[in-house]
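#struct-pred
JK: can someone run the complex with 2P0? inputs below
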Amino acid sequence: MTARATAKACANIALVKYWGKRDAQLNLPAAGSLSLTLAALVTETTVAFDPALAADELVLDGSAARTKETARITTFLDLVRGQAGISARARVTSTNHFPTASGLASSASGFAALAVAAATAAGLAATPRALSILARRGSGSAARSLYGGFVRMHAGHAPDGSDAFAEPITSRLLDKVRMVIAIVGGGAPKSHGSRDAMDHTAATSPLYQAWLDLVPHDLAAAEGALAAGDLPALGAVAEGNALAMHASAMAARPAVIYWQPTTLALLAEVRALRDRGIGAWATMDAGPHVKVLTSIEHADAVAAALRPLASEVIVSAPGGPTTVTAG
Ligand code: 2P0
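RT: done, structure tokens with the ligand placed:
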């Protein structure tokens, strides 16, 4: 008998970044993080456990996945099988409904959708917290994509990771914000994967400890801004935190530099927008793209200002939680 489920998850962009682990085996973050889930970037994943299969199979965006990707899925499904007390292999079909092909693909939405689809198909009666912890084992940022809107990830202290999970944060800012995503293309060389890059930064960057010391302050400031409904305060923390994360990575030896010339041009344009009284604040992840936090009222002006510089511009509303779309 085949046990099947489909789940849909939105990607998220961190406003206070996750950059470094305290335990690689359990995938425990070295510090907390805080994100906004995005409606425009969705992954839909179906998991079908089938006793007739000899091995797990992964079809990613319509093509059979590479061995390395399938092995990572098997490692993750082994956790689910262990918790559910089943042994059947699974057929996993995952599709990214992203408006672009240029490097925005997200392990956050991927592992959030996989965690919920696999747990449902395996018959696990998991709490939201348990699902967030499960998703974290696949990818740290995936723990945050279980929830919609603003989300706080706890680093936790427990050696077994039982307190390293995400939770939603309510804020009246949720009805007021947009994220404008400026895609930087143009033949950039393949950037360092974030998993290796954060480990390398932690191991070699003279600025890494300063990064770890900074995060609790930025988390407190971001949560304060969300509680107060203060978008300029939230934006300032987000931009400063992203620059600090990149500074720690750039100081690693050898350096991890994600930025392209267009990245800097976009950052300058965001500062110019602010000088003109338009509230807009930039953040960047493990790639050259620039994501800009702004208000609904200013989203069109921000997109128009960035469009001449970027390959493509996407305006996203906040997204909802990961949901089961077919049982
Ligand atoms: C973030 N990033 O907070 C940060 C900022 C990238 C830059 O979370 O090793 O793919 O799978 O736990 O979640 C990307 O890291 O890392 C990430 P793993 P993940 O969004």
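RT: quick notes.
The CA atoms of residues 182 and 313 lie 5 Å apart.
The pocket of 2P0 is lined by residues 14, 17-19, 27, 33, 107, 139-141, 194-195, 285-286 (CB under 6 Å).
JK: thanks, will look after standup
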